[in-house]
Amino acid sequence: MSVALILGAGSRIGKGLAYKFSENGCKVALGSRSGSSEKPEGSISIQVDVTKPAEVKAAFAKSEQEFGAPVNIVVYNVAAWSPLPEKGAPFSLPTEQFVADMNAGALGAYTALQESVAAFKRVAADKPKVFIATSNLLGVSPPSIPMFALGNQKHNLAYFIQAGNKAYSGADFRFYLASQVSSEGSNPNGELSPEAHGTVYWNLIQRAEKGGWDIRFIKDGSILVEN
Question: pTM to 2 decimals?
């Protein structure tokens, strides 16, 4: 039995992942600021603010306590976007707001990664040990001025994921940055598919080999680019 913790388990992608994982025999903990009301049978809902390290740590502990095994699948599905007060001015966002966005969309992942690695070290050898960060093209592209704060979050996530791959290259730990794109490899323009995320994430979890860290997939659930 695998234990999956989804941080940022919202009503679209998060919920879709929860049902996909549950259908495939996982025990699932859905972590969100408000607590998920709709969830698969046998799963649990955990109220967690990812900007607070103590709450992230508590979510891992509660998942293990409820299901009797360490978490071995983690999805970081959190992002924050604030429009720039002054169009075209990347540094016009108030510092407090920029820091708040970064704490939610990126720095919260640091604690989640710490807890994931600690949990993975205690997971049975025959189970997958996978951390997936939901992203978009901002994480692997030059700066976008209108999306300045969000782009910084996604670049941080990309850096974290690459660091995990490098540091644990000899271990059975896998780290992926997953982004849905259009069939041409560009922004999907609002066509985000929970079903595609579920298919791709589950396939990544079940892989025999690590493969690349930068995963870009399209609406039908197939991988377009892998680096």
Answer: 0.96
